[in-house]
Write a structure and sequence with these properties.
233 residues, binds NADP nicotinamide-adenine-dinucleotide phosphate, single chain
Length: 233
């Protein structure tokens, strides 16, 4: 499958893995809908995508804001997107008694509820066309427990359960689900959670993005695929 002229929504496109996927998909000829809160970072990315000959629409805002989420959903239908990339996420590294209820809501909403709602928004369109791909950026923490990542792992295990069960529901309908489960990557994720780390030995998000591109470009005969990348320790 080629990405040329395909419309792709990437959530969390301003930084890290989302940004690397945006740049690679644009190089492959895709048109992009990009979301995140950082207007300036999205604008800079949009300029690069357009300079490369692609179309690009940005939606700057918090995906937890229902007006922002609704406008993203509407754009998915208006542009008849071919690929949904559920990438935006936050991490929390706190023992359970130290996590506020608001933070529990934020992590579950961004990492689990919003991907479910976006998938729900496009699934009928994908079913009708009998094609479409959904890239779910999960985590190694969605498959094995990580100390003090209790809420994060709960969100990512839930996301994995959602995707695995959806695969049964869409069997034979030409829709592909790609799960991406990296170990620690060198991105802003830990800084954003107030837990800066030395990322020198972490996986490069560019390499993970290249893996996602490879999987998207596989023949339509390949249905679901999973990219697991463990960190050398
Ligand atoms: N880094 C790792 O070690 C690692 C490992 C495994 C899995 N992952 C997963 O990889 C995905 C991407 O994370 P990353 O490592 O690339 O982190 P990142 O560099 O912090 O990027 C996170 C992205 O999500 C956006 N975002 C965060 N909160 C948002 C909100 N409320 N509304 C809209 N957008 C929001 C951020 O943009 P703004 O700040 O501009 O809103 C940013 O574009 C996440 O799902 C994460 O769980 C990461």
């Amino acid at each position: 499958m080629t990405l040329k002229d395909k419309w792709i929504l990437i959530t969390g496109a301003s930084k890290g893995l989302g940004r690397e996927m945006a740049l690679l998909f644009a190089e492959a000829g895709a048109n992009l809908i990009l979301t995140a809160r950082s207007t300036e970072l999205l604008d800079e990315l949009k300029t690069r995508v357009i300079a490369g000959g692609g179309e690009c629409i940005t939606v700057a805002g918090d995906l937890r804001d229902s007006a922002v989420l609704e406008s993203v959903k509407s754009l998915c239908i208006e542009k008849q997107i071919d690929i949904l990339v559920n990438n935006a996420g936050v991490v929390d590294i706190t023992k359970l008694e130290g996590v506020s209820d608001e933070r529990v809501d934020e992590v579950i909403e961004l990492n689990l509820t919003i991907p479910i709602k976006l998938t729900k928004a496009v699934i009928e369109m994908f079913k009708t066309r009998r094609r479409g791909a959904i890239v779910n950026v999960n985590s190694a923490g969605g498959k094995k427990p990580v100390p003090d990542h209790t809420i994060y792992c709960a969100s990512k295990y839930g996301f994995n359960g959602f995707a695995e069960t959806l695969k049964l529901e869409i069997k034979g309908l030409g829709i592909r689900i790609i799960s991406v489960c990296p170990g620690k990557m060198a991105t802003e994720l830990f800084n954003a959670a107030g837990r800066p780390m030395d990322t020198g030995a972490f996986i490069s998000p560019r390499e993970v993005a290249r893996g996602v591109l490879y999987m998207l470009e596989m023949s339509p005969k390949c249905s679901h695929a999973e990219l697991n990348v463990d960190r050398m320790s």
